[in-house]
Specification:
Layout (H helix, E strand, L loop, with lengths): L15 H4 L7 H9 L4 E4 L3 H12 L11 E2 L9 H5 L9 E4 L4 H4 L5 E4 L2 H6 L5 E2 L12 E4 L9 H8 L10 H29 L21 H10 L12 H9 L2 H17 L1
Parallel strand pairs: 1-3, 1-4, 2-3, 5-6
Antiparallel strand pairs: 4-6
């Protein structure tokens, strides 16, 4: 398979605003969870709602490819049921969409639980983030329960713009809301990738070391410690004005399947170029 192959996150245009409405106030935190392949379970009474939410979640880090497993509609009959519900080991790095109320108890130990309801989609209700809560299983309100400590600050301007009225004073069309969310997610991902691309470029050999009379040079190895020092010295410059604790976030990303997938493709492309 060609490393230049483009993988689109979905075969149809996702309605991000409706699918993720209950968790939009915590958009940056949700983006982090997907970026570093945190275990996430989406609970809903509707297969359509939970499947749409799962598809929307994994699309948030585009153009990065989500490299963990994800199940838009997971049931008790799936072969991995025992593996995903066991409490003897940490939850796997997957995103599950479930509708069976049975999962409210069997998956209550998962660190990140998102609940989507018909009412939350229709009314666009807000939510609160609860960390280290012990009553996740009995909570049926729309929103997110997470034990993850966010590394990025909220973009307050994005929240204000998303809930602002349109030019005529009424609600904005869904197409406009979706475009705003997609643009914000793309900006987050693109700015996050730029330091990685710059560091990767520094691993390329100099032109003077490339000669038709010698074997082609190879890309230098990725030095995590060196990269983290570079990022801590000058992290991503977010045009949205988002501040963050970039070092720990990059450390988690470098140990994630998403980084492994990105680095494998970029390394293959670089060696092919050499």
């Amino acid at each position: 398979k060609s490393p230049a192959m483009v993988v689109i996150p979905s075969v149809h245009e996702l309605n991000l605003y409706q699918s993720l409405n209950p968790i939009l106030p915590h958009f940056e935190t949700v983006w982090e969870l997907v970026l570093i392949n945190e275990p996430i379970v989406v609970m809903s009474s509707s297969p359509t709602l939970c499947a749409n939410a799962v598809q929307a979640l994994i699309s948030l880090i585009h153009p990065l490819k989500y490299c963990s497993d994800y199940r838009p509609f997971f049931t008790i009959h799936d072969t991995e049921f025992k593996h995903y519900t066991t409490r003897t080991q940490a939850p796997p790095q997957v995103v599950l969409g479930v509708t069976n109320p049975f999962f409210s108890k069997t998956l209550e130990h998962w660190p990140n639980i998102i609940r989507i309801t018909d009412q939350s989609i229709d009314e666009g209700r807000s939510m609160t983030s609860r960390r280290n809560t012990s009553s996740q299983g009995g909570d049926t309100k729309a929103g997110i329960s997470t034990k993850h400590k966010p590394h990025l600050s909220k973009n307050k301007l994005f929240g204000k713009l998303l809930h602002a009225k349109g030019v005529t004073g009424g609600k904005r069309p869904l197409e406009v809301q979706n475009a705003m969310i997609r643009r914000h997610a793309l900006e987050l991902t693109t700015n996050f990738i730029i330091p990685l691309e710059r560091y990767l470029a520094s691993l390329m050999p100099l032109k003077r070391d490339v000669s038709p009379w010698r074997p082609p040079p190879t890309l230098k190895e990725f030095d995590e410690e060196q990269f983290i020092k570079m990022v801590e010295g000058a992290g991503p410059h977010m045009t949205a004005g988002i501040r963050g604790n970039w070092g720990p976030l990059y450390k988690k990303f470098l140990r994630s399947p998403n980084f492994i997938g990105w680095y494998r493709v970029r390394r293959e492309e670089a060696n092919q170029k050499l």
